[in-house]
């Protein structure tokens, strides 16, 4: 019998273990720190594992990420370098992310914050609006999540452009790539959606210098930033300063440098900021466990693993 360990110090692993047992009844499922003999564990699923825990599993075959990104695993400096890491790439997670992105692009486009303020004051003001086609959404990061979001935004009528480190081709979407085309991409963008992976190259990329390069030709006269990538990519003081200076029109943020977002953060109360608590693409235990179980079954049958992480690239 193969054995499986959940290492999720910031999550309650009980529900995850229950769902994993349903997905693969023959699997010996354990929860850290009550893991028994570490040498008998074949597979681990982790989120922010403490140093040396995964390393102690001397006969480990595969590491599974429990989120869309893998920075929570790669942050462990003691992670064994020879064990393959598999990231989650499930249609449910992709759909959830696209739902959230489309929701907030529409929320800004249709000026819902203004409507909510009017309702609070019992004020009837049917102000003029614009078409989705009057705005260009720039999707920064064109992996599975970015491509799906770009297509769905285009279906809603937005003009959509995309940018990635290496060239991508998406039907109906104008794509830019690399540092040479980055500023041209930004200059086209009224709503910037960031879905970049967490790497040293993307740390702090959402800063005031970038905001100043966004289009000012859209209906609101300044750019809008929507970040569902990683919190370490945004300079939060720059977001607040750019909003106050009129260099940004608004921001929706699902991720933050420190989570939970501290009560003293100015993002909570800024009138142009929407905060969501890292739920854009929340992981459903039943769905993710079924995905992991299918991966294990394929691996034990013929050695196949899908969606492997390239550690040198960080995703």
What is the compact description of this entry?
The protein has 315 residues and is an alpha/beta fold. The chain has helices at residues 13-23, 71-74, 91-109, 112-120, 144-155, 182-188, 208-211, 236-244, 285-302, and strands at residues 3-7, 28-31, 43-46, 62-65, 85-86, 136-140, 159-164, 174-177, 191-194, 223-227, 248-253, 273-275.
Mean pLDDT across the residues is 96
What would CATH call the homologous superfamily of the largest domain?
Answer: NAD(P)-binding Rossmann-like Domain
What is the name of the CATH architecture of the largest domain? 3-Layer(aba) Sandwich
Chain oligomer state: single chain
Q: Kindly provide the name of the CATH class of the largest domain.
A: Alpha Beta
What is the tally of beta strands? 12
CA radius of gyration: 21 Å
Shape: elongated
Q: How much of the sequence is in beta strands?
A: 15-25%
**Poorly predicted sequence stretches spanning 5 or more consecutive residues:** none
Q: Major beta sheet, specifics? A: 7 strands, parallel
| CATH-assigned fold name of the largest domain | Rossmann fold
Alpha-beta classification: alpha/beta
Number of domains: 2
Q: Name the helicity range.
A: 25-40%
Distance between the termini: 31 Å
Number of helices: 9
Strand order of the largest sheet: 8-7-6-9-10-11-12
**Element order, helices and strands?**
EHEEEHEHHEHEEHEHEHEEH
């Amino acid at each position: 019998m193969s054995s499986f360990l959940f290492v999720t110090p910031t999550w309650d692993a009980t529900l995850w273990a229950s769902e994993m047992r349903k997905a693969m009844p023959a699997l010996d499922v354990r929860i850290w720190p009550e893991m028994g003999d570490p040498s008998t564990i074949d597979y681990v699923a982790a989120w922010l594992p403490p140093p040396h825990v995964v390393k102690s599993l001397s006969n480990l075959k595969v590491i599974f990420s429990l989120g869309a990104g893998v920075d929570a695993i790669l942050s462990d400096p003691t992670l064994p370098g020879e064990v393959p890491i598999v990231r989650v790439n499930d249609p449910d997670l992709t759909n959830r992310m696209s739902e959230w992105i489309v929701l907030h692009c529409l929320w800004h486009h249709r000026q819902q914050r203004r409507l909510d303020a009017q309702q609070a004051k019992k004020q009837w003001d049917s102000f003029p609006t614009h078409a989705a086609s009057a705005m260009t959404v720039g999707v920064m990061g064109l992996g599975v999540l970015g491509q799906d979001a770009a297509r769905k935004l285009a279906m809603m009528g937005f003009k959509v452009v995309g940018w990635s480190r290496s060239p991508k081709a998406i039907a109906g979407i104008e794509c830019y790539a690399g540092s040479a085309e980055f500023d041209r991409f930004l200059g086209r963008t009224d709503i910037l959606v960031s879905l970049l992976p967490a790497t040293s190259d993307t740390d702090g990329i959402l800063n005031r210098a970038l905001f100043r390069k966004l289009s000012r030709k859209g209906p609101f006269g300044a750019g809008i930033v929507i970040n569902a990538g990683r919190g370490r990519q945004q300079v939060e003081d720059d977001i607040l300063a750019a909003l106050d200076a009129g260099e940004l029109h608004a921001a929706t943020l699902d991720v933050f440098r420190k989570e939970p977002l501290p009560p003293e953060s100015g993002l909570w109360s800024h009138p142009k900021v929407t905060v969501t608590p890292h739920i854009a693409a929340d992981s459903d235990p039943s769905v993710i466990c079924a995905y992991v179980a299918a991966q294990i079954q394929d691996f034990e049958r013929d050695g196949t693993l899908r969606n492997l992480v390239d550690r040198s690239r960080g995703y």
